[in-house]
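4.2 Preliminary Data

To establish feasibility before requesting continued support, the project team ran the inverse folding procedure on a target of 360 residues. The structure was first converted into the token representation described in Section 3, and no sequence information of any kind was made available to the design step. The complete token record follows.
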């Protein structure tokens, strides 16, 4: 068996330990004589899986009791519609557009009400985070929306915007559990699991209870109402059982390693190895403003498309997978999520040094 260093932005690398455990339990989960894939979502065994997963997530993120945790489906993209459908009361929401995912959310919200773009960094290919300390927040805005870590462009909000009292809604798909977070600063956080938490098919939403409405228009589909999911503890219908089970294992893995403080320490250490090299390199350079650099997604280029292509091809031969940048940015992107070991980043940087020596 050979494992590669997988720098994919998502679906992405998972902790090897978690995969091994899941493999061991594949045919017989804890004496049930069946796989979690084969088991009723109403069974005692699965009830324990989902309840433990929620409890562990609450502990890791210190989620206050007045927030609901929902395990949903439909990808992060479905939330682009669910958020305005559930949270627009006045029919107005403010969007900060710092990348393609934020832009898609903004465009989708326009279907359901007045979505206002109050800031953007599109003028410079989303390579920075705009100043959000004093934005023209709409008086009637039901929420202010951000994509906290911009997976494609490699920027992150190190500081949250000043929402002037309006609830903040954040897509945290690609920075979920990467560092400690103060949940009380948000009205809602959500993210797809396939970046930093588990397999595709699970979306986790954390919502302050007062934002969960029971007076939604009849046109909002039952399945898209947060109330439906909250009242049923995410078991209104069949949830993505196996995905939730793997997410739960990842939560335990993080707990065992020391929680989110330790994740942050590791992620900062890993990112520094790569950024320090990029800053000293004669061939490669990072593409975003230094103050706004993400710990999770690191885009970089040589400035020469042909050379970038050669790098990606040679890297693959060396066991470095999915290092190609998003088609809208070009170049390369190393996604170095929680499950990417430090050795993987060191291996990448060593390879880059060698490539540089051969090409300068
Ligand atoms: C990947 C990603 C999405 C889209 O996720 P899907 O689950 O494919 O819908 C949305 N937002 C961010 C920040 C992402 O990284």
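Position-by-position output of the design step:
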């Amino acid at each position: 068996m050979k494992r590669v260093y997988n720098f994919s932005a998502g679906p992405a690398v998972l902790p090897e330990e978690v995969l091994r455990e899941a493999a061991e339990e594949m045919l017989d989960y804890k004496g049930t004589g069946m796989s979690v894939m084969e088991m009723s979502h109403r069974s005692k065994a699965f009830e324990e899986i989902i309840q433990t997963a929620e409890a562990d997530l609450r502990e890791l993120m210190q989620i206050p009791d007045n927030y609901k945790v929902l395990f949903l489906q439909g990808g992060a993209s479905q939330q682009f519609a669910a958020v305005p459908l559930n949270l627009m009361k006045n029919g107005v929401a403010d969007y900060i557009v710092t990348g393609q995912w934020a832009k898609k959310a903004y465009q989708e919200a326009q279907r359901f009400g007045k979505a206002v773009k109050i800031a953007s960094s599109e003028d410079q290919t989303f390579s920075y985070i705009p100043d959000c300390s004093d934005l023209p927040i709409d008086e009637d805005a039901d929420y202010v929306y951000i994509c906290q870590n911009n997976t494609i462009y490699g920027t992150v909000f190190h500081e949250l915007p000043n929402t002037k009292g309006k609830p903040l809604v954040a897509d945290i798909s690609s920075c979920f559990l990467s560092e400690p977070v103060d949940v009380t600063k948000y009205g809602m956080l959500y993210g797809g699991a396939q970046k930093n938490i588990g397999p595709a098919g699970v979306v986790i939403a954390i919502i302050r209870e007062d934002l969960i409405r029971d007076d939604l228009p009849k046109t909002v589909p039952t399945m898209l109402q947060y109330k439906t999911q909250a009242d049923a503890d995410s078991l209104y219908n069949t949830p993505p059982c196996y995905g939730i089970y793997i997410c739960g294992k990842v939560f335990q893995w993080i707990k065992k390693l020391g929680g989110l403080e330790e994740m942050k320490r590791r992620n900062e250490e890993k990112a520094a190895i790569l950024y320090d090299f990029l800053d000293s390199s004669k061939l490669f350079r990072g593409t975003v403003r230094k103050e706004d650099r993400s710990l999770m997604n690191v885009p970089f280029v040589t400035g020469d498309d042909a050379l970038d292509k050669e790098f990606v091809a040679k890297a693959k031969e060396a066991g470095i997978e999915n290092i190609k940048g998003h088609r809208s940015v070009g170049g390369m992107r190393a996604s170095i999520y929680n499950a990417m070991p430090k050795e993987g980043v060191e291996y990448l940087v060593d390879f880059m040094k060698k490539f540089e020596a051969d090409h300068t």
